[in-house]
Amino acid sequence: MANTADISRGMIIKLDGSLYSVIEFGENKTARAAAKVWAKLKGVDNTRTIEKTWNSGDTIYPVRVEKKNYQFLYKDDTGYSFMDNETFEQIALQESLVDAPQFLKEGQEVFVLINTETDQPMNVELPDKIVLQVTYSEPGVKGDTATRTLKPATVETGATVNVPLFVNEGEMIRVNTKTGEYVERVK
C-alpha cells in the first residue's frame, strides 16, 4: 500500500475504478488544519482530466506500469499497428490510446505503457521531439519580421505545424509532440 507521500509526477493510480496519470501535485498546509495533498490527474483509460484532494497520509492505489519500446508499422481499419522491438509481436490499438497520432510515421519508435496487472496496453507515447520533413509550405514574404511571424506548413505525416517564415518546403524540422509546436530547423 502506498500513501499520499509517495505521489510523483507520471505515476498511474487507480481512482473510482479508472486509471489516472499524475500530471502535477502539491501540498497545502495551514496552521489550524491538517495538511492536504492535491493532484491534477489525466485519465489513462478515459478522456477526463480531474483534480483530487486527499488528507495527508491517505491511502492511494498505484498501478504498476511497464514502458516498452515499440515500432509503428501502419494504420488500417483495425487501428494503429505496433511491433514489439524485442519479441516482434504485433498489436493493434485504437486512435484514442495514441498521444499524438497526427505525428506518427511508419517506422517511428514509440513507447507503449502496459498495465502489468492485466497485460493490456494503456497508452502510446511518442518521443517528446521528432524530426519531420516539410512537404508543403507557402514561400515566406520578406518584410515585417520584427515580431515572430509564423506560417502554416504541412509535414510528411499530413499534420499542419506553424513554422517561421524562413522554413521552406523540403526542409527537416523538429516538432514538439506534446504541444504540436515547431522547435527548430534540422540540418
Quick rundown:
By secondary structure, the chain is an all-beta fold.
What does this structure look like?
The chain folds into 3 domains: 2-62, SH3 type barrels (Roll), CATH 2.30.30.30; 65-125, OB fold (Dihydrolipoamide Acetyltransferase, E2P) (Beta Barrel), CATH 2.40.50.140; 129-186, Nucleic acid-binding proteins (OB fold (Dihydrolipoamide Acetyltransferase, E2P), Beta Barrel). It has no helices and 16 strands. It has strands at 2-3, 12-15, 18-28, 36-43, 49-55, 59-62, 65-76, 79-84, 90-93, 109-115, 120-125, 129-137, 150-155, 160-164, 172-176, 181-186. The strands form 3 sheets. Strands 1-6-2-3-4-5 form a 6-stranded antiparallel sheet, with no helix packed on it. Strands 9-8-7-10-11 form a 5-stranded antiparallel sheet, with no helix packed on it.
